[in-house]
Design brief:
The chain is an alpha/beta fold. It has 4 helices and 6 strands.
Length: about 140
């Protein structure tokens, strides 16, 4: 059974970060789901569609790269694929090489929550796929 499309799926094993991002994006008028790890994210993706996935790279059970590989296996047409923004520490970038074509932006932790909100809102509003492909978004406190 498929659920209505949502704007954003926030995937992070840090509950405080996950809740903070969800609160800020919800207050900005976006519909948000959350997942505590990659396996929960895949469960959400099976029943719902999202415009933006905001995925932490380092998580237990199934990491961010594992989620991206599962998404690639869904064989969505290019236009239907969600926009992927990866959150990571600067030292964790190497694993992204195998899925780089799927990642539109890398957001380095720690980040400014308002700048993250603006980036996500821009992605939802205009599906800014081409304008930010492969770019690094350095958002810091």
């Amino acid at each position: 059974m498929s659920h209505p499309a949502k704007d954003v799926l926030v995937v992070d094993d840090d509950e405080q970060i996950r809740k903070l991002i969800a609160i800020v994006l919800t207050r900005a008028g976006l519909s948000v789901d959350t997942a505590a790890d990659g396996l929960h994210a895949v469960e959400h993706l099976v029943v719902s569609s999202y415009t933006v996935l905001l995925i932490d790279l380092s998580m237990p059970r199934l990491d961010g790269v594992g989620v991206l590989k599962k998404i690639r296996a869904f064989h969505w047409p290019e236009d239907d694929r969600p926009i992927v923004l990866v959150m990571t520490a600067a030292t964790e970038r190497e694993p992204l090489t195998s899925v780089a074509e799927m990642v539109q932006a890398v957001i380095t932790k720690p980040f400014d929550i308002q700048e993250l909100r603006e980036l996500v809102q821009d992605c939802v509003a205009g599906r800014l796929r081409c304008d930010i492909t492969g770019s690094e978004v350095t958002i810091s406190l």
